[in-house]
Amino acid sequence: MNSSDKKCKRCLLRDLAEKDRQELGKYIDVLKPEDRAKAEVEEKRLEICRSCDRLENATCLACGCYVEVRAALKDGSCPRKKWI
Ligand code: SF4
After folding, report:
1. pTM for this prediction
2. Domain boundaries, the chain
3. Bridge partners, residue 60, by sequence
4. Distance CA 76, CA 84 (A)
5. Ligand 1: nearest atom to the Cα of 80
6. Engineered SS bond to 61: which of 22, 52, 54, 77, CB 3.0-4.6 Å?
7. Which ligand 1 atom sits closest to the C-alpha of 63?
8. Higher confidence at residue 50 or residue 7?
9. pLDDT tens digits, residue range 55-71?
10. Residues contacting 69, CB < 8 A, separation 6+
11. If you take atom 1 of ligand 1, which residue's CA is the nearest one?
């Protein structure tokens, strides 16, 4: 099993293998600047996700999204209302 095959609870894609980080870039790099959350907002959201029991392998089990994509959106929200 290589590192990208392991399930990682409480991890973000940025913490995983290069292949996973490239996958993240595919989604985030296409967002228009006006649709992006401020960097400090995004980071606060991700800190909340990191401590959430619904985060597994960079995915929110409550909605199925990559949390980094959800957190990067200006109008993004947590399905469990832990952040807006
Ligand atoms: S989006 Fe909300 S429910 Fe999903 S992992 Fe983050 S804090 Fe948890």
Report:
1. 0.82
2. 3-72
3. 55
4. 7
5. 3
6. 54
7. 4
8. 50
9. 998 899 999 999 999 99
10. 24, 27, 28
11. 78
